[in-house]
Amino acid sequence: MKKLIVLIIILSCGLIFAEYPDGNTILQKIDDNMYSKQVVSTMQMIVYGNRVNKTMKLKSWSEGEERSFSEYLFPPKDAGTKMLKLGDDLWIFEPEADRTIQISGHMLRQSMMGSDLSYEDMMEETELLKLYDANVIGEEEFNESDCWILELTAKINDVAYQTRKIWVDKEKYLALKEERFGKSGTLLKTTEIKEVFKVDGRWYPKRIIIKDALKEGKGTEIIFDEIKFDVKIPAIKFSKASLRK
Hints:
Low-confidence stretches: none
Number of strands: 13
Number of helices: 4
Strand content: over 45%
Helix content: 10-25%
Shape: globular
Strand order of the largest sheet: 6-5-4-3-2-1-13-12-11-10-9-8-7
Radius of gyration: 20 Å
Order of helices and strands: HHEEEEEEHHEEEEEEE
Largest sheet: 13 strands, antiparallel
Distance between the termini: 81 Å
Structural class: alpha+beta
């Protein structure tokens, strides 16, 4: 009788664990959907303040994980501000001061243009599977979508967030909700995708709310107006000379 009970328990546990797919396989599908060798996008960034909201518009070009370039188009005060990323280095050109400054080290974790994003967040181009191991820890409905809940643990120390918890749409393989934690386990950032759209067969975020959990405020909204994948980008775009053009 005891053997029968043990057998039933083992089979039950097997059935429970069999319900969850491999976390790294899901992470690979997210990377396949989200990342492309060359991407050109135009977006709005709305920083919600306690009294006044600030809207910015920028265009970005990226190639692989190492190179990206962004130019602010609006408002007039910020128009012409440009950012160049080459590997782990970031340069910003400020047209009003007519100067180029390099952002490095702890400064990369500072707020970018008063938003809830850090410069490090904007520089994040690396595929998730290269940085994290993932385990499925549950499933839950979020915004009327069935989601797997994944816990991501960093493979290396040099990442902005040591652990992440993400809610992944089971059909579209988008992380609809995310919580990002520091080494101490402190919640640092949250993100929620409010709207998605399909581009060239890929599901992509249309509207995202990002919130810095360590400061007051209503967060920052990113709205993608246009995004193009696998676009040929001239090499000169990713040069310091482009900052002053």
